[in-house]
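NAD(P)H-binding domain-containing protein: structure tokens wanted.
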Amino acid sequence: MSSPKTIAFFGATIGCGLATLSNALDADTRCIALCRTPSKLEGLFSEDKTSRLTIVEGNVHDVDAVKKCLTVDGTHLVDTIIFSIGSRSMNYKLELDDPSICRRAIATVLIALSTTGISQFGPDTPYIVGLLYYYLLYSPHEDKKAMEQLIVGSDEDFTIVRSSWMLDGATNKAVRVGVEDPKNGRESDAIGYSITREDVGKWIFENLVQNDNGLYVRKIATITH
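Answer:
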């Protein structure tokens, strides 16, 4: 009998990372989460869910700490990695406290192995939102573009998920999906204004973990309401 699926989480304490983790635990999935401050996750879930969650204390820039998240009982690699690391904005200009965190963190994960990105093939948000992204979020988008290039250039299978502007609260709205091949361009479009973090996490778990049919392997999925 095959062993249960195990997911490693980097960035599971807030937002869509936390929402994905919650969905995974609800589905009795074994999870390992790297956390600088374990108390941020401890106590969030019931005892039966916590029994399926291993929290590794450490920093995503520490290769040894990352390796602890990538192996199950020190014997084999996890089945899936959910990476939702980001940086906090410090002021109204949305300047980041760590403007290169995404590219440095994913580089560490890739070394340990061996919210929005910006497409080079056209817009994935309405034009006015694109302008806001460019002028207000230039720094984080440059970081995420660099991160995506590292992922695409690796030998690992991946799915990059780009969401439209993220809000709080779960909804019953349908999630629309656009697909892009990093090398060959757009396969389908999904242009929208916003989506909730909870709906992002639910979509990631349901489509990339629970019912993964390979549709998004080595592809970029743009999701929105």
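Residues 66 and 109 are 6 Å apart (CA to CA). The first strand starts at residue 6 and ends at 10.

Cheers.
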